[in-house]
Amino acid sequence: MSRSLKKGPFVDHHLLAKVEKAVAIKDKKPVKTWSRRSTILPEFIGVTIAVHNGKQHVPVYVTDQMVGHKLGEFALTRTFKGHPADKKAKR
Q1: Is 64 domain-assigned?
Q2: CA 5 to CA 27: how far, in whole Å?
Q3: Is pLDDT of 33 > 80?
């Protein structure tokens, strides 16, 4: 179920302040955040945000097609190591 339109998109205030500051001084360093739940706004376009995936910060360069999605969608938390090999096929 999506969020109500009258509420608007959710963005952590500290993340919004960091991004606005980075845009104002034209800083190219990634903005480090743990806020995977924040929605990407049009103000974030062109900024690299380092999103925490539980182990490390994954750099995410925000483009116009990402607007409206959550930051956590672009920093995967699970790694797939593959299914175990079939023992019958090894013979």
Answers
A1: yes
A2: 32
A3: yes
Say how many C-beta atoms besides its own lie within 10 A of residue 44's C-beta.
26
Helices (H), the chain: 13-24, 87-90
Selected residue with higher pLDDT from 2 and 52? 52
| Residue 80 included in any domain | no
- Which structural domain, as residue segments, surrounds residue 50? 13-74
- Does a structural domain hold residue 41? yes
CA 22 to each of CA 5, 27, 47, 81: distance values in angstroms, whole numbers, following the listed order: 28, 5, 8, 37
CA 31 from chain center: how many Å?
Answer: 11
42 three-state secondary structure: helix
Q: Is the dihedral of CA 39, 41, 44, 45 positive or negative?
A: positive
What is the CATH number for 61? 3.30.860.10
Confidence of residue 84 (pLDDT cuts 50, 70, 90): confident
